TrEMBL record:
InterPro entries: Cellulose_Degrad_GH3, Fn3-like, GH, Glyco_hydro_3_AS, Glyco_hydro_3_C, Glyco_hydro_3_C_sf, Glyco_hydro_3_N, Glyco_hydro_3_N_sf. The lineage of its organism: Bacteria, Pseudomonadati, Bacteroidota, Chitinophagia, Chitinophagales. Residues 670-739 form the Fibronectin type III-like domain. This is Periplasmic beta-glucosidase. The keyword Signal applies. It comes from Chitinophaga filiformis (Myxococcus filiformis). Keywords: Glycosidase, Hydrolase, Periplasm, Signal. It comes from the Bacteria.
Length: 750
C-alpha cells in the first residue's frame, strides 16, 4: 500500500515546482515584452502562410521579408526540418531573435495518414484515437512542426456539409470523449518534449450548425442549444489543456465568431478559464467586412482584438491596422501585450527560446512513416470500417472466389488518403486493387465509370487535383466492359462513392447520393444477377435507399488513409471482423436533414395511424442507418437488462448490467451503448442521449456481462435557469447495439 503522507508530500512538491516554473516563464516572457517595440509586438500577432501549400483564398508574397524584419511571428504551411530551419534562421537574425512558431493542418496524420476523422470516430476506441494523434504529433514534430490545427470538434447534423468528414459526428457526449483523447495524443504531458505539438481546437464555435449545410453559411442558435449540444466538445478540449483555439468563420447571434467578445472573452476565458492563445481562421478578420458587422479593415481589426483574438491568420489586418488603432485609442496597449504574452508563452512552453531549432532535426526522418506507424494506420483503418448490410452472410469472401473488382475508387491512391491529408504522400497509399491482388490471383479490375458525369460538379470539386478530371466520352464502353467482367466472375466487389475532392472544406453537396453515373453502373452490374459487395468510399453519410434495398452486402470504408486497401481487404476476407459503428445518422433522403437520434419528442410524437402527428407523407422519420449502427460477421445476442435499484439518490450509483453473447460463427467485437432519457424536465429533453459505452471482445460462444455505473452526473443538463443540474423524477435507461435497437428499463432519481 502506498503511504498517503508520502503521496501528499510528493504532490505538494510537484505543485511547488510547477508554480516555480510558471513564475520563471512569467518573468522571462514579461521581461522580453518590456524590450519589444510596438512593431515587434504586432509582428508576433501576425501568422502568414508560406507558399509550400495554400489552404485559403489568397497568400501574401514576400512573407519572408516580414520574417526578416521581425514583423511575422508564426508561419503555417511550411514543413520539413530543412525548410523550417531555413526560415527559423531568418528569425534568429532579427533584433530580439524571437523564434517562429510553425503551424500546419495535421488533421488525420502527417505523412502516415489515418482514416478521415468521421471514419476514425467509428472505432469507438479512444485509445486508438489518442494513438493516431500521438503518431501524427511525432511525425509532424520530426518534420519541423510545432502546432497542429486539430482537433475539429464541430457537432454536425447535416451531411450536406462537406466538413462533416473532419469531425466527430452528431453526438455531443461522444464529441467530448474524442476531444479529450485528441488533445492528449497531440500534446502529451510535456509540451517541451520534442515529439509533442500544440493542439488547436476548432472551429470555435458552432461551425457545424451552418444553415442548409452550405459551407461558410450563417448560424442562428439559441443559447440553450449551444450550451446543451454544441459547446461541450470545445469545453472538453479546454479542460484537457488544449493550448490554442481557432475561431470559426460563421456568425453567432449576429456577430462573427472572430468579433464575438461574449464568445472569446466572457465564455472562453472568464467562464472556462482558457489560458492559451486564440488564432483566427484563414482571413476571418477580413471577412467581417463581407459579413457586414464592420465597415473596413480598421474597424475589423479593432473588433477582433477587442473580442479576444490574439493571432491573425493570414489576414494582415493586425499587421496593417493595430498601430493606428492604438494611437486612436480604439485598442489598448494592455490588449496587445496580453495577446503577445499568450503567444510567447506558447513558444516558451515548446522550449523554443532554449533551442529554436529543436524541431528541425533531420536525423528524425526515420520516425516518419515507420513500419510501426503504418501498422497502426492499418489497425485503425480496419476498426473504422462499418458493415452496413450483409445478407445471407455474403461476406467474408471465399478465398478462392473469382472476383470482379469494379469502380473508379478501387484504383485511386489520391482518394485513399482523403481530404485534409495535407502533407500525406499519396504515392505510398495502398489501393483496394493493389491489396486484393496481393492476396488473390483471381482478381480482375475495370473502372466501369468515372467519379461523375456531371462536369460542373467535377470542375468545382477538383480545383486543385487535376487527376480527378474525367473524360466522359467513352462511358458507355466502360460500363459494357464492367458488365462483361461481372458476368464471368463469382462475385463482384464495387468500390463506389465520392472522390476526396467532393468532400471536406468548400465541398457541400445538395444531393448526397452516389453520383448518378456510378449508380447506373451499379444497377447494370446488379442486373447481371451476380452477387455484389458494395464498398463505399466517401466523406459523409450518403443517401442509399436503393442500394440498401437491392445490394446484399455494403461496407462503409470512408477514406481510410495510407493503408486503406490493406484494411478493406482484411475485412473482405474476414481476417478482421468489422466492428465499427456510425457516429452520424444516414438519412433516407436529403429531405430528412437535419437528422439526429437525440431529437425532441415534440407535442405530437410520431403515430403512424394519426395524420396529425409529426411525420412525412412520403418517407419515414427514422434514418436508414441510425447513430451507433454497425454489423459484424458474427451475431451478438443481448440478454435481460437489469438495474441494481429502481430508485437512487444523488449520492448513489445505479448499476446497469446486461449479458451479451457471441452467438454467431466468428470471434468479434461489440460496442454496447447506453442511452438515457429524462422523462419530465423543467425544459424539454431529448428522446435519448448517449451517456456511456463499452467496446468488448467476445470469442465465438462467449458471454460477458457488461456493467455500467450511472451517477447523478450522467443525468445533468441545463435547466430552465441554465444551471447544470439533475432534476428528481423518472428516467429511462436504454442499452443496445445502436441507438435504435435497445432494451429499456425505468428508474427514479429521488
Ligand atoms: C481554413 C479552415 O477552415 C481551417 O480549418 C484550417 O485550419 C485553415 N484554413 C488553415 O489551413
Amino acid at each position: 500500500m502506498k503511504n498517503p503522507k508520502r503521496l501528499l508530500v510528493a504532490s505538494l512538491l510537484l505543485a511547488a515546482l510547477s508554480v516555480k516554473a510558471q513564475n520563471t516563464k512569467q518573468t522571462f516572457v514579461s521581461n522580453l515584452i518590456k524590450r519589444m517595440t510596438l512593431e515587434e509586438k504586432i509582428g508576433q500577432l501576425n501568422l502568414l502562410t508560406s507558399d509550400m501549400d495554400v489552404t485559403g483564398p489568397f497568400m501574401k508574397p514576400g512573407y519572408k521579408k516580414d520574417i526578416e524584419a521581425g514583423l511575422c511571428g508564426s508561419i503555417f504551411n511550411a514543413y520539413t526540418a530543412q525548410y523550417t530551419r531555413q526560415l527559423q534562421e531568418m528569425a534568429m537574425k532579427t533584433r530580439l531573435k524571437i523564434p517562429l512558431l510553425f503551424g500546419y493542418d495535421v488533421i488525420h496524420g502527417h505523412k502516415t495518414i489515418f482514416p478521415i476523422p468521421l471514419g476514425e470516430a467509428c472505432t469507438w476506441d479512444m485509445a486508438l484515437l489518442e494513438q493516431s494523434a500521438r503518431i501524427a504529433a511525432q511525425e509532424a514534430s520530426a518534420d519541423g512542426l510545432h502546432w497542429t490545427y486539430s482537433p475539429m470538434v464541430d457537432i454536425a447534423r447535416d451531411p450536406r456539409w462537406g466538413r462533416v468528414a473532419e469531425g466527430v459526428g452528431e453526438d455531443t457526449w461522444y464529441g467530448t470523449q474524442v476531444a479529450k483523447a485528441k488533445v492528449k495524443g497531440y500534446q502529451g504531458s510535456d509540451l517541451s518534449a520534442n515529439n509533442t505539438v500544440l493542439a488547436c481546437v476548432k472551429h470555435f464555435a458552432l461551425y457545424g450548425a451552418i444553415e442548409a449545410g452550405r459551407d461558410y453559411n450563417t448560424v442562428d442558435m439559441s443559447r440553450r442549444q449551444m450550451y446543451q449540444f454544441y459547446l461541450p466538445p470545445y469545453k472538453a478540449a479546454i479542460d484537457a489543456g488544449v493550448a490554442t483555439v481557432m475561431t470559426s468563420f460563421n456568425e453567432i447571434d449576429g456577430t462573427p465568431a472572430t468579433a464575438n467578445k461574449w464568445l472569446l472573452t466572457d465564455l472562453l476565458r472568464k467562464d472556462w478559464g482558457f489560458k492559451g492563445f486564440v488564432v483566427t481562421d484563414y482571413t476571418a478578420i477580413n471577412e467581417m467586412i463581407s459579413h457586414g458587422n464592420v465597415k473596413d479593415e480598421y474597424e475589423a481589426g479593432a473588433a477582433a482584438l477587442n473580442a479576444g483574438v490574439d493571432m491573425d491568420m493570414q489576414g494582415g489586418i493586425f499587421a496593417g491596422q493595430l498601430k493606428k488603432l492604438l494611437k486612436d485609442g480604439k485598442v489598448t496597449q494592455k490588449e496587445i501585450d496580453s495577446a503577445v504574452y499568450r503567444i510567447l508563452a506558447a513558444k516558451y512552453d515548446l522550449g523554443l527560446f532554449q533551442d529554436p531549432f529543436k524541431y528541425c532535426d533531420t536525423t528524425r526522418a526515420k520516425e516518419i512513416m515507420s513500419a510501426e506507424n503504418l501498422a497502426a494506420a492499418q489497425k485503425i483503418a480496419e476498426r473504422s470500417i462499418v458493415l452496413l448490410k450483409n445478407e445471407n452472410q455474403l461476406l467474408p469472401l471465399k478465398k478462392d472466389a473469382k472476383i470482379a473488382l469494379i469502380g473508379p475508387l478501387a484504383n485511386s491512391q489520391r482518394d485513399m488518403i482523403g481530404n485534409w491529408s495535407a502533407a500525406g504522400d499519396y504515392s505510398k497509399a495502398v489501393t483496394l486493387l493493389e491489396a486484393l491482388k496481393q492476396r488473390s490471383a483471381n482478381v480482375t479490375y475495370v473502372p466501369g465509370a468515372y467519379y461523375t458525369a456531371d462536369t460542373t460538379l467535377l470542375k468545382r470539386a477538383t480545383q486543385k487535383y487535376r487527376l480527378e478530371a474525367a473524360d466522359t466520352a467513352n462511358s458507355q464502353q466502360m460500363l459494357a466492359e464492367a458488365v462483361a467482367l461481372a458476368k464471368q466472375s463469382d462475385i463482384v466487389v464495387m468500390a463506389l462513392g465520392e472522390s476526396q475532392g467532393m468532400t471536406g472544406e468548400a465541398a457541400s453537396r445538395s444531393n448526397i447520393s452516389i453520383p448518378e453515373n456510378q449508380q447506373q453502373l451499379l444497377k447494370a452490374v446488379y442486373a447481371t444477377g451476380k452477387p455484389v459487395v458494395l464498398v463505399l468510399m466517401n466523406g459523409r453519410p450518403m443517401t442509399l435507399e436503393w442500394e440498401d434495398a437491392h445490394i446484399p452486402a455494403i461496407l462503409e470504408t470512408w477514406f481510410l488513409g495510407t493503408r486503406a486497401g490493406n484494411a478493406i481487404s482484411a475485412v473482405l476476407f474476414g481476417d478482421y471482423n468489422p466492428a465499427g459503428k456510425l457516429t452520424m445518422s444516414f438519412p433516407r433522403n436529403v429531405g430528412q436533414i437535419p437528422i439526429y437520434y437525440n431529437h425532441k419528442n415534440t407535442g405530437r410524437p410520431l403515430n403512424p395511424d394519426n395524420k396529425y402527428s409529426t411525420k412525412y407523407l412520403d418517407t419515414d422519420n427514422e434514418p436508414l442507418y441510425p447513430f451507433g449502427y454497425g454489423l459484424s460477421y458474427t451475431k451478438f445476442t443481448y440478454g435481460e437488462l437489469k438495474l441494481s435499484k429502481q430508485q437512487i439518490t444523488a449520492a448513489d450509483k445505479l448499476q446497469v448490467s446486461i449479458p451479451v453473447t457471441n452467438s454467431g460463427n466468428y470471434d468479434g467485437e461489440e460496442v454496447v451503448q447506453l442511452y438515457i432519457r429524462d422523462l419530465v424536465g423543467s425544459v424539454t429533453r431529448p428522446v435519448k442521449e448517449l451517456k456511456a459505452y463499452k467496446k468488448i471482445a467476445l470469442a465465438k460462444g462467449e458471454t460477458k456481462t457488461v456493467t455500467f455505473d450511472i451517477s447523478v452526473e450522467d443525468l445533468k443538463f441545463y435547466d430552465k435557469d441554465m444551471r447544470w443540474k439533475a432534476e428528481p423524477g423518472d428516467f429511462t435507461v436504454f442499452v443496445g447495439t445502436n441507438s435504435r435497437d435497445t432494451q429499456s428499463a425505468g428508474f427514479t432519481l429521488k
